[in-house]
């Protein structure tokens, strides 16, 4: 195996100006890739914009002796997403990998969630992942190769409070990834998801007032974004040539493969069902396999550190 896993590849990392995206961009560069660092430098809620975060990542890559360019176009619109891919082609003449990582949060309990909270999060995460993926797809098809790595979240895979917009977008991304994997397998193109865990701007709003909360946050702070980067680089590389349509998670030094939804139990009635039959017989039988109202911390109930 080559010492550098993505040597010569051209990689777009959206949201590469900070957090997990920066860590992935740096590891891609360390492993021989040329990187398009895409970031609008927005606040956590998507407002504002600055080229500085992307420039800082570029500087860090240059310090490693790597090559990187900056794209400050938003993933959340079709036209600007086209420019992100055009940036890779103009700068490096090709595109091999898209890492859909850009993200914002607008957490609000469901009955208070505004259409603006909903649309802005769907636009960056779900629509943005489609727009950038789609902009690269024709190039991938023509060259008969390419890899997508999308960031999903246990908020969508399992659940969380106050994140209807984010959870829906993140589970939508899983279906998008699977669909891309199915449609583009014939062209040698792969698509996988990672549910990352990291102490970053996105998780820094976790309260740290009581001694217990402080102790928990101190542990969480050790879950640095770079722990997610090796899996992203591996999935982008030829070493993962048989890996597609899968959902993984990375949490500190743990890696997980996630299940995907399948029927868990069935009931059958030779005469068909009335609502009363369902109440009396069907549902009591199915109930044995109901899935609880779990949140991510209920399933990831042990600390990784
Ligand atoms: N941190 C975690 O524990 C965690 C958990 C699950 C999923 N994720 C996912 O991982 C990804 C990275 O998260 P992070 O924690 O590093 O967050 P972060 O806020 O540190 O980074 C997100 C980056 O995306 C950029 N961005 C926002 N809107 C953009 C747009 N329209 N176009 C281009 N760039 C844009 C921001 O400027 C920012 O630099 C996100 O998709 C997030 O949902 C993170």
Overview in brief:
The protein is of the alpha/beta class and 305 residues long. Helix content is 42%, strand content 13%. Helix 1 links the parallel strand 1 and strand 2.
Structure description:
The protein is α/β, with parallel strands linked by helices and 305 residues long. It has a single domain (10-257), classed as NAD(P)-binding Rossmann-like Domain (Rossmann fold), CATH 3.40.50. It is built from ten helices and eight strands. It has an eight-stranded mixed β-sheet with strand order 3-2-1-4-5-6-7-8, with helices on both faces. α1 (19-30) packs parallel to α2 (52-63), α1 (19-30) packs across α8 (229-236) and α3 (78-92) runs parallel beside α4. The longest helix is centred in the middle third of the chain and has 29 residues, at 115-143. The structure holds nicotinamide-adenine-dinucleotide. Residues 14-15, 17-21, 38-42, 44, 46, 53, 74-76, 101-104, 124, 128, 151, 153, 195-198, 200-203, 225 line the site of nicotinamide-adenine-dinucleotide (NAD). It holds the Pfam family adh_short. InterPro entries: KR_dom, NAD(P)-bd_dom_sf, Peroxisomal_Beta-Oxidation, Sc_DH/Rdtase_CS, SDR_fam. Belongs to the short-chain dehydrogenases/reductases (SDR) family.
